[in-house]
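We modelled the chain as a single entity of 127 amino acids. Its sequence is:
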Amino acid sequence: QEQLVESGGGLVQTGGSLRLSCAASGRTSSSYAIGWFRQAPGKAREFVAAISWSSRTTYYADSVKGRFTISSDNAKNTVHLQMNSVKPEDTAVYYCAAQAVNKGSYTLTQMHMYDYWGQGTQVTVSS
């Protein structure tokens, strides 16, 4: 059973920190990469960050670069998204997704290039 389970969402004040986790099981634990996306109310889902399991190469959206850090714990098949200096515009449902095989690093920012998705976790940043 391919499964991605997000956790760690919640309410945080502007400037605070939050750590999201994505636990992979089944085929998702042997996937090529894990990505984080987010969707704010009334907006399209957008890329946040991604990491490849093997090389641990990381990719970030410009909007979160320098504030968010993606990392992987390969032994636990878990990917974390450390969110620092959060802003109200970071408020969204955060989803993790798995790309099953390497489709090229340029595809990691593209939602439709992922094969499995989690259910999402809500992050709310209060001003």
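As a brief sanity check on the tokenised model: Residues 22 and 111 are 17 Å apart (CA to CA). The chain has a mean pLDDT of 95.
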